[in-house]
Amino acid sequence: VHEYSAVIDPGLLSSIPLLAELDASTLSDVARSMLYCSYRAGDTLVYEGDPPQHTFCVLQGRVRLARTAPDGREQVLAMIGPGEFFNIVPLLDNHPNHANARAMSQVECLLLSRPALLELIDRHPDLARALLQNLASQLRELVVLVEDLAFRSVRERMARQLLREATKGQNGMAAMTHQELAERTGTVRDIAGRALPQFAQDGMVRLERGSVIVLLALLAI
């Protein structure tokens, strides 16, 4: 991990969705409070159960958020990409980190400590409103995850997850491995591996090396 205390350009922050509507004064204040960090693929950024220290904004790469059961099984909560924040809740309620965060690739991100975040919220109501909107969006995503796990079949969950990933990518490409797809949908790799060829046979996806191309037929699932 490499930390740099160099001044962050406020113009960089204006391109981040959560901060995009903040005025120049607030952006400058936030920028002065942030640190830049980079992580290698496989590094753990946050450990579940540890005291909260920072919230993170990903600039480059992907971060996997997951909770671990006593028997070692994991449930993936989210895949965080460029422009997205994570680990805000523990800083606000001062309870332990609720998930492990692991770099799935080379990751560059901005860090904001708990004292700095709380001070910024006190000074800038517009930042507080932006954080509330972000937390509301995360809550909705978790509600959808619970709904999927409780009420949908494995096939339906995989189809919906592929669609979500495809909407984030380019040209309908969902760049996921079999293992990632299984973890995101609460199943095991073997089941995901058997389902994808069936999706391809049914004309719903096209499988390419390391990627899944989602076709329009999948929209009917």
Structure, described:
The chain is an alpha+beta fold and 221 residues long. The protein has eight helices and twelve strands. Helix 4 (114-123) crosses helix 5 (125-151) and helix 7 (178-184) packs across helix 8. The radius of gyration is 19 Å and the shape is elongated. It starts with a strand and ends in a 7-residue tail after the last strand.
Per DSSP, what share of the residues sits in E-state strands of 2 or more residues? 15-25%
Which spans of ≥5 residues are poorly predicted at pLDDT below 50?
A: 217-221
CA-based shape: elongated
Estimated helix fraction: 40-55%
Features:
221 residues; five-stranded antiparallel beta sheet; four-stranded antiparallel beta sheet; alpha+beta
Compact overview of the structure:
41% of the residues lie in helices and 24% in strands. With 221 residues, it is of the alpha+beta class.
Question: Helices, strands, pairings?
Answer:
Elements: E1 2-4, H1 10-13, H2 24-32, E2 35-39, E3 44-46, E4 54-60, E5 63-68, E6 74-80, E7 85-86, H3 89-93, E8 100-103, E9 107-113, H4 114-123, H5 125-151, H6 154-168, E10 173-174, H7 178-184, H8 189-201, E11 205-208, E12 211-214
Antiparallel strand pairs: 1-2, 2-9, 3-8, 4-7, 4-9, 5-6, 5-8, 10-12, 11-12
